[in-house]
Design goal:
Number of strands: 8
Radius of gyration: 20 Å
Number of helices: 14
Structural class: alpha/beta
Strand order of the largest sheet: 1-2-3-4-5-6-7-8
CATH class of the largest domain: Alpha Beta
Largest sheet: 8 strands, parallel, barrel
Bound molecules: flavin mononucleotide
Order of helices and strands: HEHEHEHEHHHEHEHEHEHHHH
């Protein structure tokens, strides 16, 4: 079902990717991570297929990116197969290298509607969603456009056009937006709902022949508690390899360095891993050899991140600097005067204020 020349087959193995994280992996975060950490692959935050289907154009914000983010995969969640079909076409129109379906989110507002990790409990619906998404990318390869997406409003259509224009303006290489191809579909999921059911769940997914599966070694019930179960991830990897389908399998959960990543990949016969939380304020986590990162370096990158955040979002009608503050706290983790600096950073409203604080503490 999936193309042999997709991003999942062309990337050199093993793949060390930046995990999708809602409220974190936005445009400036991805740019900074890519610049300093060079992950092999990055994901957007997830966005709601239902929301897009119901006209929530502001959700397109999650799908903003710049050409330097390639290879980049757009992630969607939801419960309605038809909205996945349409969202898949939308992601193809925006030039993403892949479409990822979230079947791992445990958050109440997602799972209570039956989406995210709750789909582990409704395997037939999960399969229908994958099928509809595959249909969307196949239709797009054969010439479908947003005109074939009856639920998208005029506002969504015009915003997608704006994003396409921006990407074309920023692109220095050949225009990926124009190339009709079978964009690969991947799944990000967990090892079970309340207990580990890898032995049943992974074959259910494999029946749909996804290009890749990323597996977080916790159940929905566990949320983020305990440790990621790498034995279960290894079991899944065996099932994927035995299937002979060529589906890639990536492990996820608690990886905090390049070395741990490679150790898990070797021990559990994986094609790669996703790194999430260890990248907070630490884009260097993906590097094999991490140079000594002095507090002054971190402060410089934190300021660069804050400036990029403003540049990216300040023209938005509802612009707020608040989402940037948590990143600033993460960057200064472990600094000698971290507490005093943090108290001031979490009250900032602009990169100018951030700069002044770093200067006051002798970090710039
Ligand atoms: C703040 C936050 C937001 C997240 N948002 C998403 C998301 O949008 N999509 C997704 O598939 N997983 C999401 N996750 C899960 C992560 O991608 C990852 O699976 C999880 O954090 C375990 O990996 P880690 O131990 O390397 O952080 C999120 C996790 C966190 C902490």
């Amino acid at each position: 079902m999936f193309a042999q020349d997709s991003i999942w087959t062309s990337l050199q193995l093993p793949i060390i990717a930046l995990s999708p994280m809602d409220g974190v992996t936005d445009v400036p975060f991805r740019t900074i991570t890519k610049k300093y950490g060079h992950p092999d692959l990055i994901f957007t935050e997830f966005s709601s297929a239902e929301g897009l289907g119901h006209g929530a154009s502001e959700l397109l914000k999650e799908f903003r990116y710049t050409p330097d983010h390639h290879p980049i995969i757009g992630q969607i969640y939801g419960t309605t197969p038809e909205f996945f079909r349409q969202s898949a076409i939308l992601l193809c129109e925006l030039g993403f290298d892949g479409v990822d379906i979230n079947m791992g989110c445990p958050a109440k507002n997602v799972a209570h509607s039956g989406a995210g990790a709750a789909l582990i409990k409704t395997p037939q619906l999960a399969q229908k969603i994958i099928k509809a998404t595959q249909q969307g990318v196949a239709e797009w390869q054969n010439g479908a456009t947003l005109a074939d997406c009856p639920d998208f409003t005029a506002k969504i259509l015009s915003q997608v056009q704006n994003q396409q224009q921006q990407l074309k303006l920023l692109s220095t290489t050949n225009n990926q937006l124009a190339q009709r191809r079978l964009v690969p579909i991947s799944i990000k999921t967990r090892i079970g709902f309340d207990t580990e059911i890898v032995g049943a769940w992974i074959p259910t997914l494999l029946e749909m022949k996804p290009a890749a599966i990323s597996l977080h070694g916790r159940t929905l019930r566990q949320l983020y508690t305990g440790r990621s179960d790498w034995e279960a991830i290894g079991k899944a990897a065996d099932l994927v390899k035995q299937s002979g389908l060529g589906t890639k399998i990536l492990g996820n959960g608690d990886i905090d360095s390049y070395q741990t990543a490679h150790q898990k990949i070797a021990e559990f016969n994986l094609d790669g891993v996703l790194i999430g939380r260890a990248s907070f304020g630490n884009p260097w986590v993906f590097l094999e050899t991490v140079p000594e990162i002095l507090p002054t370096t971190k402060a410089r990158v934190a300021l660069e991140h804050a400036q990029l955040f403003e540049l990216t979002y300040q023209s938005d009608s509802k612009f707020s600097f608040l989402p940037m503050r948590k990143h600033l706290s993460w960057y200064i983790h472990g600094f000698p005067q971290a507490k005093e600096i943090r108290i001031q950073l979490v009250q900032t409203h602009s990169s100018q204020e951030v700069k002044a604080i770093f200067q006051k503490f002798g970090l710039l």
